[in-house]
């Protein structure tokens, strides 16, 4: 097995293994690379839905069916990330998956089924590197602070449709999902490293602390977190697989291919409630 880092802070290409036949010793090396590099990539891995589910289960318990995304026939936990003719992708946002949950996912396994001839890359950013790069006064300003995360942006999207009463299905679901509060700086549950924990898709605002306290600028944190220095960009091929640590990364889908057909299968692994990082690491 060969592990090749792809940038200074995040991303590695793993070669020389077959994810369909990965023994425990090899998987241990894969998992170590996952923790070290935060997102790991593979080519020439042709995973059936059954095989993708089995691989994801090695990382932990699986999330239930996504409330909005369609799924592969007969496999509700295998979400379809798909573009078809006349159904182009909507506007893309930098995001960490499902931070509107009290316990957002640990990681995701994404497998490319078919792709445009060009375009459709995905970019990941290290939120550990983003935190490390903040000046000390900025770290102090966000220490022990929390932010509100909530579902928004799906209503009227290509994942929405009308229910039996003619109302938005997404709005019907989201009205029963309460906003949650997460630390601005979280501690990784396995490595102990601090990470900036905001994303422009689901972080709504920073919560007030003491009366009169000046709140950090959330838009400035968004801008800082997606700096190119913290990124890795991946060009998909049919059979490519990406596995990313959702606890310390965010990502962005590049929607530069119009309505050219593109389909990926996604399986998500459950996480834990984010813990605040105490200190100014």
Automatic annotation (TrEMBL):
Pfam families, A to Z: TauD (PF02668)
Transmembrane regions: none
Keywords: Dioxygenase, Iron, Metal-binding, Oxidoreductase
TauD/TfdA-like domain span: 3-267
Stored Gene3D superfamilies: Clavaminate synthase-like (3.60.130.10)
Gene Ontology molecular functions: dioxygenase activity
InterPro entries, sorted: AtsK-like, TauD-like_sf, TauD/TfdA-like
Entries under SUPFAM superfamilies matching the protein: Clavaminate synthase-like
Family per similarity comment: Belongs to the TfdA dioxygenase family.
PANTHER family according to UniProt: ALPHA-KETOGLUTARATE-DEPENDENT SULFONATE DIOXYGENASE (PTHR30468:SF1)
Protein name stated in the entry: TauD/TfdA dioxygenase family protein
UniProt organism field: Enterovibrio norvegicus
